[in-house]
Design a protein that fits this description.
Strands 1-7-6-5-4-2-3 form a seven-stranded mixed β-sheet, with helices on both faces. It folds into two domains: 224 residues, Type I PLP-dependent aspartate aminotransferase-like (Major domain) (Aspartate Aminotransferase, domain 2, 3-Layer(aba) Sandwich), CATH 3.40.640.10; 132 residues, Alpha-Beta Complex (Aspartate Aminotransferase, domain 1), CATH 3.90.1150. 43% of the residues lie in helices and 14% in strands. It is α/β, with parallel strands linked by helices. Strand 2, helix 5 and strand 3 form a beta-alpha-beta unit. It binds ligand LCS. Ligand LCS binds next to helix 4 and helix 5.
């Protein structure tokens, strides 16, 4: 062999060439204003002893992106702060967050009490998938805290609330339910998707865990599916190191970055969503072809006072019924031009959909009526277009009925 140092092969340079670049760059400080995306699945150890210390939990270095990644951490730190919690866990979807939360709290043979109006996917998880794993869920009308007290058994390990609920916009008095639950040592989880931390901080109202489908207002632009859990440090650690580790619903660094970007404009967007939603709700409530409008910001909403007390605003979601019922509602949804007929919510685009046949089709016909989801209900997520254009679009679609 020649004593001259061998040039690495081309394939080695393709893989390791970047290291020379890293060395060259390392003495230049990086002061990126936008959080960098650490698009790395794995992280190098200094030596075997370091790797072993990390695995024993004695060294906090990153290991593998399913368990943690600097871009995820930046998002989690921000969300924990905004929700006034100790720690947060970012996940691949709102449903991954729900599954992770439930499995962190409950084992086979245990029980959950939840509100009876939930996003249809959560209802499906509670009535189909969890029972297969030996976890039973009792769903109760969420507007009266006493219903939760009555449904608690000695096996209950979690109270699960959505406030305001999708799509009925029924609120739960979070503080009152937390008092009932804590008297029995049971934690309370609140799905805060509709309010975001800008409008409601469930932990400050007495809840123990907050959940977000960050797909919605937190991302805000209809380009990311993601979920968030916020809670006590120990609980988040268990959720991460026991359930996320094994079930695997981790968020990608790129999606974590999209949410960080979304958060920067969250208050500005929410202010506009709310301002426009109130104007649209008022337009609808005076329209002769609209039989009912549900929006917590209207004085006619049965829980308007609770919404004013518990939230810092009324949000951007409206549900309404058209004279002539389901068929008339379908005419409106088929004739909008600016509004998009699509599920999801909280986007810059105004989205319209039919809960009974779409987001909440996991409820049977009878169940829909029992929980107050009128089969004729139309759900509107008011976007950030000029509100006059949104109203003009709804007016022309209503004229077709
Ligand atoms: N919680 C609420 C209140 C939701 O509205 C949704 C999704 C989820 C949790 C689940 O979050 P994901 O896994 O989708 O991020 N809601 C939807 C909706 O109303 N239309 O499409 C999805």
């Amino acid at each position: 062999m020649s004593s001259k140092q061998r040039e690495p092969g081309f394939s080695t340079l393709c893989i390791h060439g970047k290291k020379h670049l890293d060395k060259h760059e390392s003495d230049r400080p990086i002061r990126a204003v936008s959080t960098p995306i650490f698009q790395s699945s794995t992280f190098a150890f200094e030596n075997v002893a370091h790797g072993a210390a990390v695995f024993r939990g004695e060294d906090p270095s990153y290991v593998y992106t399913r368990l943690g990644n600097p871009t995820q951490t930046a998002l989690e730190t921000e969300l924990a702060y905004l929700e006034r919690g100790e720690a947060a866990l970012a996940l691949s979807s709102g449903m991954a967050a729900a599954t992770t939360a439930v499995l962190t709290c409950c084992r086979h043979g245990e029980h959950i009490v939840s509100g009876d109006t939930l996003y249809g996917g959560t209802h499906q998880l509670f009535t189909q998938t969890l029972p297969r794993m030996g976890i039973e869920v009792t769903e109760v009308p969420a507007d009266d805290p006493q219903n939760f007290a009555n449904a608690i058994t000695d096996k209950t390990r979690l109270i699960y609330l959505e406030s305001p609920a999708n799509p009925t916009l029924v609120l739960t008095d979070i503080g009152a339910v937390a008092e009932i639950a804590h008297a029995k040592g049971i934690p309370v989880l609140v799905d805060n998707t509709f309010c975001t931390p800008y409008l409601q901080n469930p932990l400050e109202l007495g809840a123990d865990i907050v959940l977000h489908s960050a797909t919605k207002y937190i991302g805000g632009h209809g380009d990311t599916v993601a979920g968030i859990l916020v809670g006590k440090q120990d609980w988040i650690m268990t959720a991460r190191m026991e359930i996320l580790r094994d079930v695997g619903g981790c968020i990608s660094p790129f999606n974590a970055w999209l949410l960080l970007r979304g958060l920067k404009t969250l208050p500005v967007r929410m202010d506009r969503h709310m301002e426009s939603a109130l104007e649209v709700a008022q337009f609808l409530s005076y329209h002769p072809k609209v039989s009912e409008v549900i929006y917590p910001g209207l004085k006619t909403h049965p829980q308007h006072d609770l919404a004013a007390r518990q939230q810092r605003g009324f949000g951007g979601m409206i549900s309404f019924m058209v004279e002539g019922g389901r068929a008339a509602g379908e005419i409106v949804m088929d004739n909008v031009k600016l509004c998009t007929l699509a599920v999801s919510l909280g986007d810059v685009d105004t989205l319209i959909e039919h809960p009974a046949s779409m987001t909440h089709s996991t409820y049977g016909e009878d169940e829909l009526r029992t929980v107050g989801i009128d089969p004729a209900m139309v759900r509107l997520s008011v976007g950030l277009e000029n509100v006059k254009d949104i109203i003009a679009d709804l007016r022309q679609a209503l004229a077709k009925c």
